[in-house]
């Protein structure tokens, strides 16, 4: 019996060694194939001039293109930052990308917030109000509508999809005049509601959240929550909403930028300077010099423009990681 056990053990050891040898040979073959594929990929990348993310290589062409694009994007900001440090006299007498004789940034900032009894601060608060209520409401409606369209099936769903796509293709400026006529009939022109109500509708945000909800929220997870007795509202707020965070941030950034930079709608809707957003207020300061007896204040316009874009830059820097992950969601099929 002991001889049989010993023979069986030797046979098992031999089979194990043979299996290990075969596995090692297979691994060596795989490694050789990987090296061969990597060499072929590097050769292809060198020939095409583009870098491979798995095997990064420097490309002078891409470096040049991205450098030109970076200069193009940063040039307006650099221009604002430099000219915001100039007095009105230096602004008109010195080179646009050169500093003036006097560093007047702090004086310009003080004058921006005190000129015309501090109307710039009122414009800033108005813009923040329109962004919080208008862009915030648009984001909330886009989240709820996109989630419902992605996870609920109902008659007319395809028709809604066609309407949303059609709404995206219509530029907002084409709807400004009809909106003005409608709001004039309702007596809402020259009021904050003329800015807030149109900002609540974001067809692109709705479409973005629709597509993101389909990819980010597994239907099986929702079914499991329903089996456990969770209501639709609890399922949405406790399960779906955290999964939608990247898409929410991305949608919020788009709606915030659109509302913050909105120019044509307040231009035709608002007449009272007390309700102007920053875009219309700064344009009024710019055109002030062309009126009879108007004072030229380009240094304040430039400084005010710099102050205007700082909140957007901060928002993008703080939310960049969520925004990037939101744009990449659904790019890889698992």
Tell how many strands the DSSP assignment holds. Answer: 0
- Major sheet attributes: none
Q: Tell me the CATH architecture of the largest domain.
A: Orthogonal Bundle
The tally of helices reads 15
Strand proportion: under 5%
First-last Cα distance: 54 Å
Just give the CATH class of the largest domain. Answer: Mainly Alpha
Question: Radius of gyration, rounded?
Answer: 30 Å
* CATH fold descriptor of the largest domain: MetI-like fold
The SSE string, one letter per element, is HHHHHHHHHHHHHHH
Describe the overall structure.
The radius of gyration is 30 Å and the shape is flat. The chain contains 15 helices and no strands. The chain folds into 2 domains: 52 residues; 211 residues, MetI-like fold (Orthogonal Bundle). With 334 residues, it is an all-alpha fold. 25% of the residues are buried.
Topology:
Elements: H1 2-48, H2 60-83, H3 88-93, H4 105-114, H5 119-151, H6 157-169, H7 172-186, H8 193-199, H9 203-216, H10 219-227, H11 232-243, H12 245-260, H13 264-269, H14 278-287, H15 298-328
Concise summary:
By secondary structure, this protein is an all-alpha fold.
Question: Which descriptors apply to this entry?
Answer:
flat, 334 residues, mainly alpha, 15 helices
